Amino acid sequence: MTxxxxxxxxxxxxxxxxxxxxxPCACGAPLAPPLLRAARPEPITHRTWTDDWVTVRxxxxxxxxxxxxxxxxxxxxxxxxIPVRPVSAPAGPAHGGSRDGRVPSHxxxxxxxxxxxxxxxxxxxxxxRDAVTAAALYLKWLGFRDVVQPxxxxxxxxxxxxxxxxxxxxxxxxxxxxRAVECLWLNGLSSSAVSVLFSLAGYADDARARAxxxxxxxxxxxxxxxxxxxxxxxxxxxxTGA
Length: 242
Hints:
Residues 87-111 are annotated as: Disordered. It comes from Streptomyces xantholiticus. This protein is of the alpha+beta class. It has helices at 128-142, 178-191, 205-214, 232-240, and strands at 4-8, 15-19, 23-24, 30-31, 42-43, 53-57, 64-68, 71-73, 79-81, 160-162, 165-170, 194-199, 218-221, 227-229. It folds into two domains: 4-100, no CATH class; 128-240, Trna Endonuclease, Chain: A, domain 1.
């Protein structure tokens, strides 16, 4: 059963109930990172590749590998790092542990390794158009090609299109809505494309829940123009790229 715990955002004091994502171990057993209830979640202000992964041991086969660091995106725009109980002892070499520098076999690797993917260079957001530009640059950084933005926003609400991707950018001061998520999903479905949503003000609770159900990557952006993942689908998109 998935482990869950109450989480309070230290910025807006909103209460959440967080359930750790479940992934299949190489042995086939479902496995979720064990949450550390005694530790307080901290807002993510700076990302590194090391901080985005945690070591987890499978209780079924004792295999020890690297798994995505659990995170929670609050509608206020804050992304929280959820603490995980540390592994008490390293696994032996027979289990393929990550201490020897090998990569996890059960999680898709980035098609372009982080060391070879160029550093993302954001643009400062001063206008709504800047927000769309920042999102376009980020999609290109992820590997999507021919990403374009229309001169005028279409009635569909789609701000960006590329090969295999459609994206919407919400530059308002209100959290993105459930309707925005579902409309974006329908546009992606009709185009056989990945749907990606960017927001400056975070997401309403029902919008976040629906995006998780539909597998839509959600990102929040601050005025520096650097998107941050809000849900597991966004984490996966960053890991695998286009």
